Here is the input.
Amino acid sequence: QVQLAESGGGLVQAGGSLRLSCAASGRTFSDYAMGWFRQAPGKERDFVAAISWRGDTTDYADSVKGRFTISRDNAKNTMYLQMNSLKPEDTAVYYCARDRFAQSVTRRNVNEYAYWGQGTQVTVSS
Here is the structure.
C-alpha cells in the first residue's frame, strides 16, 4: 500500500518562502511521476506542478511558474516543492499525489493520480 505524507506547510508573509516535502512509503516511488496540487476553501483542487519518474521533466501551472520548483530524491523516496515569492493567493491546502501508471509523463489532471497525501496547509498573509 502506498502512503504519502506532506510536511512543511505553515504561515508565512507575502514574499516569503516555504519548502514542502512529500515522503512516500514503498519501494516503487522512483517508478512513478508525482505531482503537487492545491485546494483553497470552496474551490476545486488545482494542479500546481508535476515531475516525471526520472526527475528530468517538470511542468508548472502558469500561476506558479518562475516562483515554485518541484524536485525529487528517489534515494530518499521524497518529493519537494520549493515555494518562493509567495502571494496571498497561494493560500491553500497542498497535496502530493502519485501517478496511476509507472514511467508516465507529467500530468495535470487530478484523475490521473491514484494516491494522495492528507495535505498540508499553507497560509500567506498580506
The longest strand covers residues 92-102.
